[in-house]
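Researcher: I'd like a structural prediction for the single chain below. Treat it as a standalone chain; there are no partners to consider.
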Amino acid sequence: MNNSAFNITKRKIKITFYGLLLIIPLVLVFLPKTFFNEGQSICVSFLLFDTECYGCGMTRAIQHLLHLDFSAAYSFNRLSFIVLPLSLYVIVTELIKAYKSDN
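Model: Treating it as a single chain, here is the predicted structure.
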């Protein structure tokens, strides 16, 4: 495979990857906001040491944030107000770079 074909394939993989990452928040919007509220925690810090880490509650907080339930999102994890917009910004800019790149 020549270098040009390899770069085109690499670009298509990047676009597909970031496109799928953009779809995840859309899927979360269609799930009920309480979908992740119950169940066993999978956080290693919580399971081993019974101590919450900075990421504990992030999935639930982002789920509530996507449903515009700001008070519940804040109670689950305050960092979600920074993580969600920053994550979406990074994904969108990387998708645009991958789409525009000639490499």
